Amino acid sequence: MNLSSIRQTWFANVRGDLLAGIVVALALIPEAIAFSIIAGVDPKVGLYASFSICVIIAFAGGRPGMISAATGAMALVMVMLVKDHGLQYLLAATVLTGVLQILAGVLKLGALMRFVSRSVITGFVNALAILIFMAQLPELTNVSWVVYAMTAAGLAIIYGLPYITKAIPSPLVTIVVLTAVSIAMGLDIRTVGDMGELPSSLPVFLLPDVPLNLDTLKIILPYSMTLAVVGLLESMMTASIVDDLTDTPSNKNRECMGQGVANIATGFIGGMAGCAMIGQSVINVKSGGRGRLSALTAG
Fold this sequence. Notes:
Blueprint: H1 3-11, H2 14-39, H3 43-60, E1 68-69, H4 72-85, H5 87-106, H6 118-136, H7 145-164, H8 170-185, H9 214-246, H10 252-267, E2 275-276, H11 278-286, H12 292-298
Antiparallel strand pairs: 1-2
């Protein structure tokens, strides 16, 4: 990679990348906690994963402007492994997942994405949008009228502000304004802190505490293979979507290897496996994020 390429992917859109990255970072925190709960692990496992994967992919990924972190699809695969064998086996499976993804990149399996039709990608994105919408419905049931008022105000700002100015991403303005209103008026509404406690320390290197034998491999290999496939499918589809949104190409094989490196590192600091996030990547692009700096800021 030459100096011109580094400048283009990192510093061609500094202001837009920084602002978009802040928007994504604020959205990642509750999602990481929620996905940890789905997987049956402590919230800090998802937060550590989102931090490390997002930062590493900023450097190693093949698609600038794409956001990777802990995801719901990956969390669902982990449920039974955590339930039957515990966190340490999940960490070992995460490391093995990364190894398999690097192997996929070396074998250039990322090139197979060109055989996936446009209708499949469109269907996947629409289905994901429906699932995300359905997942938010519990947050709007059995709550006071204040929550509905805040939701309506948030939607009005998100969709109305771009008609006035696009200097600042509307989701960022929404978060700042509604948070300020909530604090100033002392509104009794649920916050991110109610979902789980944020870790008070940075992650440290650790080896998964599992026996290094064939029995362990038999336990984690099926889960690792599934995680690797699910993670790469979602990452490749996300890369294709961001390619279309930005009208720029991406290196799918580099993305495979980047996802692998990120998951290996995550497994060694106590995080769960993750992959690219379609929703957050679209938010990043729509908020003005284009370069690697946006992913680094989000992490």
